[in-house]
Design brief:
It is a single chain. This protein is an alpha/beta fold. It folds into three domains: 107 residues, Cobalt-precorrin-4 Transmethylase, domain 1, CATH 3.40.1010.20; 81 residues, Rossmann fold (3-Layer(aba) Sandwich); 93 residues, 4-hydroxy-3-methylbut-2-enyl diphosphate reductase, catalytic domain (Cobalt-precorrin-4 Transmethylase, domain 1, 3-Layer(aba) Sandwich). Helix content is 38%, strand content 18%. It is built from nine helices and twelve strands. The strands form three sheets. The chain has a four-stranded parallel beta sheet, with helices on both faces. A four-stranded parallel beta sheet has the order 3-2-4-5, sandwiched between helices. The two termini are 16 Å apart.
């Protein structure tokens, strides 16, 4: 059984930088992260093991002098509230998430009503919209009715979306008209991050070559879910796992070629462990096949 890694997979520079900063020895025992630094269970546990505290909100009972904003970003009101409470604030927001925040502010300054294509419940989206006076988060066409009375629409995207999903939504929004039949003024800024696009392109390419795909990453990781969706959309069997111990031998019965991809929050050692586990199963299956 052949096992192939996607050309682009695993942690991106934004995640690497956030983890490196949080793991800095100077923070040992005196840092609290507001939310999950990244959506990966192994990384979260590693942080806890080094004495880093993790809370859900700036209003939690924080005992350390330092707090950190996660790679997913947060509203400026969260930064301000943390400073008001006397904490030293460290910002691990990914630069590409910051790009979305800046793009939204520019669109609002230009007179556009802000529209975010994404999941309203996702921490990144909450951070983008929480400082806005008004906005609409669009997941699909069912949300278009909320745009009816808005003549100027400025659109950005959650960084972890699939571009092939976002572009059709944008094109359909461009076809919306005002009550007098005139076209809406629509401006779209593509804020899907390049590492996300690279991983989606790589898994799309690999999906044409394999019989089965293993997608490695946190179950709460949006970009990892999108990688599996690429496979699902093509009808390719795919399993989303967080660690090597979740790999099951029966998945690979009769499979000739397995692909492995991983989300932008997945550490390289986790990918390596999954790769070795799949290789071991493949060798065992090949040996049984040869013996029979």
């Amino acid at each position: 059984m052949k096992v192939t890694l996607a050309d682009s997979l695993g942690t991106c520079f934004g995640v690497d930088d956030a983890i490196k900063e949080a793991m800095d020895p100077r923070f040992r025992g005196n840092l609290t992260i507001i939310g999950q630094l990244v959506h990966n269970p192994q990384t979260v546990q590693q942080l806890r093991d080094t004495g880093v505290e993790i809370v859900d909100s700036v209003e939690a009972n924080i005992q350390t002098p330092n707090v950190m904003i996660t790679a997913h970003g947060a509203a400026q009101s969260v930064h301000q509230r943390a400073k008001e409470k006397g904490f030293t604030v460290y910002d691990a927001t990914c630069p590409l998430v910051m790009k979305v925040h800046k793009a939204v502010r520019r669109l609002v300054d230009e007179g556009y009503f802000p529209v975010v294509v994404g999941q309203a419940s996702h921490v990144e989206v909450r951070g983008i919209v929480s400082d806005l006076r008004e906005y609409v988060v669009v997941a699909d066409e069912k949300d278009f009715e909320k745009l009816a009375d808005k003549p100027k629409l400025g659109i950005v995207s959650q960084t972890t979306n699939q571009i092939k999903t976002v572009l059709p939504i944008v094109e359909k929004i461009k076809m919306l008209t005002n009550s007098d039949g005139s076209p809406k003024d629509v401006k779209f800024v593509d804020t899907i991050c390049k590492p996300t696009k690279d991983r989606q392109i790589a898994v799309e390419k690999l999906s044409n070559e394999v019989n089965l795909m293993i997608v490695v990453g946190g179950h709460n990781s949006s970009n990892t879910k999108k990688l599996k969706k690429v496979c699902d959309d093509k009808g390719l069997p795919a399993y989303h796992i967080e660690k090597a111990s979740e790999v099951k031998r029966e998945w690979f019965e009769g499979i000739d070629h397995v692909g492995i991809t991983a989300g932008t929050s997945t550490p390289s050692y986790v990918i390596d462990e999954v790769y070795e586990a799949v290789l071991a199963i493949g060798r065992d299956l090949d040996a049984h096949k040869a013996a029979s």
